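Reviewer 2 asked us to include a model.

Predict the structure of this chain.
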Amino acid sequence: MDIDKIDAEIGERVHQVMWRKRVSQRELARALGIDPAAASLRLRGLIAWKFTDLVIVARLLDVGLGELIPEEGVAGKEASAESRCAPPWGQRSGRRRVPALPTPGRTTLRPVWCAS
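Predicted model (structure tokens):
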């Protein structure tokens, strides 16, 4: 997917979920702390989506981030499954990787392990 089209694809996905969940553009704008005109520009892909905004939108719509972000926008269609998987701890540059301790009250993102 062309990098310039990712914001438009994300906006389309957000709009589809908004329609399904019956969430108005005004509610989206209020949740993001922007005016409805800016929310419209973002939904049409004319303003880039920030990761923090996508997290807010996912919580508002009660969906996972994966439903809003196209897979091609993250890894590319030509990327293999192995390149999208996180390596086991300690296999990157020979250093041991230790996961961060979770903060109370916050969700901790974990790496996705792929079957070998």
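The helical segments are 6-21, 25-32, 36-43, 51-61, 65-68, 71-75, 81-84. Residues 3-72 form a domain with the 434 Repressor (Amino-terminal Domain) fold (CATH 1.10.260.40). We have added this to the supplementary material.
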